[in-house]
């Protein structure tokens, strides 16, 4: 895996973590551009390699009436506009083999949702696009088993694979991150910690996923200390009214202080 092969990814020689960050879902053009502009300003200041994240479609919802998107092509065109406007790469989730080819026309990184990390046809379809593929570790999978997910990408002829840990189910309504898995998975591909989804509290009786956003800083600092290569953080300027995953997103106003602290931690680790 070579970060510099991701189009428009800046600061790849900055010797710090890379960042996948943005809203859970694309709710509209104005919100996407507003969030992207804010994050780009911060990451340029701190020289953090940055990929804008936004789901063009949310297929894994608890309830039938949950928000799933504003329309596939409309959302993908917004992702392209973010990339063209701010000269940054973009990443989005895909859920079917058909999604892979469609999304690849608009974004630079294809993300495999955790609950689909074992779907061979989906991983192969993503790999065949030639795009970087970010595989989220299934909440039900061991770190060791992610070797096989990565192999599905590489044996298709694509060396651009990333693993993202988003926690492991702990009972029915909580997640834990086992940081012992970081060095294990780094043997197979660069490892990203999904800070915000690791703090989800899924399967609530209301059908709306809960979360513990007050621990985002704690989780992110632990990830950097454990040696992850990148961080995944969902953020929104109004989490309480976000259409998806608002309960575990970081308020956009808190992002700069968090990233500044994390870069300082990374710099200290690099000096040891």
Automatic annotation (TrEMBL):
The keyword Transport appears for this protein: no
Major subcellular site: cytoplasm
Keyword Cytoplasm: yes
Pfam families associated with the record: DAHP_synth_1 (PF00793)
InterPro entries xrefs: Aldolase_TIM, DAHP1/KDSA, KDO8P_synthase
GO-annotated molecular function: 3-deoxy-8-phosphooctulonate synthase activity
Pathway listed: Carbohydrate biosynthesis; 3-deoxy-D-manno-octulosonate biosynthesis; 3-deoxy-D-manno-octulosonate from D-ribulose 5-phosphate: step 2/3; Bacterial outer membrane biogenesis; lipopolysaccharide biosynthesis
Listed PANTHER family: PHOSPHO-2-DEHYDRO-3-DEOXYHEPTONATE ALDOLASE
Name of the featured protein: 3-deoxy-8-phosphooctulonate synthase
């Amino acid at each position: 895996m070579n970060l510099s092969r991701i189009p428009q990814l800046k600061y790849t020689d900055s010797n710090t973590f890379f960042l996948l960050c943005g809203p859970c879902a694309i709710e509209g053009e104005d919100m996407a551009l507003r969030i992207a502009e804010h994050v780009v300003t911060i990451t340029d200041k701190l020289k953090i390699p940055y990929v804008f994240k936004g789901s063009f479609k949310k297929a894994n919802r608890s309830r039938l009436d949950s928000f799933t998107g504003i329309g596939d092509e409309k959302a993908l065109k917004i992702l392209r506009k973010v990339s063209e406007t701010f000269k940054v790469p973009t990443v989005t989730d895909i859920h079917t083999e058909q999604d892979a080819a469609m999304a690849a026309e608009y974004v630079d990184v294809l993300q495999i949702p955790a609950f689909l990390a074992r779907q061979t046809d989906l991983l192969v379809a993503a790999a065949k696009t030639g795009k970087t593929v970010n595989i989220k570790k299934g909440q039900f999978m061991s770190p060791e088993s992610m070797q096989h997910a990565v192999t599905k990408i590489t044996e298709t002829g694509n060396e651009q694979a990333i693993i993202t840990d988003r926690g492991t189910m702990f009972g029915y309504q909580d997640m834990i991150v086992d940081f012992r898995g970081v060095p294990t998975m780094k043997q197979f591909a660069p490892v990203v910690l999904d800070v915000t989804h690791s703090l989800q509290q899924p399967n609530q009786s209301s059908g709306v996923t809960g979360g513990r956003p007050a621990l985002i800083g704690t989780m992110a600092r632990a990830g950097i200390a454990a040696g992850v290569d990148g961080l995944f953080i969902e953020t929104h300027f109004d989490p309480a009214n976000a259409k998806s995953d608002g309960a575990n997103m970081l308020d956009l106003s808190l992002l700069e202080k968090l990233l500044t602290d994390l870069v300082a931690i990374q710099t200290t680790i690099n000096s040891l």
